[in-house]
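Take a record.
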Amino acid sequence: MRIARFSIDGNVAFGAVEGDKPDELVVDIIKGSPYADFELSGVKVPLSKVRLLAPVIGHKIVAFGRNYAAHAKELGHEVPDAPFAFFKPATSMIGSGDAIQYPSFSEELHHEAELAVVIGRMCREVPRERVKDVIFGYTCANDVTARDVQKREKQWARAKGFDTSCPLGPWVETELDPSDLTIQCTVNGQQRQLGRTSEMVHSIEDLVVNISEAMTLLPGDVILTGTPEGVGPLNVGDEVAVTIEGIGTLTNKVIKRG
């Protein structure tokens, strides 16, 4: 099931996206929380009539770096023996179609296409065999990075945590085997990144076990699983798209921060 969060006529709701053809997709509005037992209202709205938002209302975004060996190599880094985590604030999230605002303190903005895991229940110290039980679903992510700031500042808070630096969407796919999916990133229609989730150094199970050892995860929290090689620059006016097999395409345009 594809679960979207959207706004229409000033109201925000969750809904199940139905249909196969892009121009015939509709959203069936959900009654209740998508993270608990819910009912479909039967009230259906054409997807073309709504504005897609970031598909979750998360408390935190836990991102893992250098989880693809080729990406670590292209930036001159070693692959970490254990998962290497950092945070992006919830205020960095935007949805598909929203604008990435080029930060005024950077001159080198990069795209990083990633598979995002969405947590579906409160959990802590999750055993490996129970990881699937705490996952709500998966979505596309772009870990937009001010690369020059990342290089000169020892902490990554500004480089990866600025407003609009975490596009997510277009929706959450709840029924998906994430073990070997194609991840692609294009900029203005030209391919920049192409990889597979099977190339991850540390698996999704590794990542959930690692971070839940340290902290409680809540429904709607997001885990970014790393990016394949091919990261590169974004400029004002560019349109960047992240496509993941079985999920869909997340598209955002880069604008000057006003």
Q: What stands out?
A: The chain has two domains: 2-52, 61-256. Residues 151 and 214 are 27 Å apart (CA to CA). The chain has five helices and 20 strands. The longest helix spans residues 204-212.
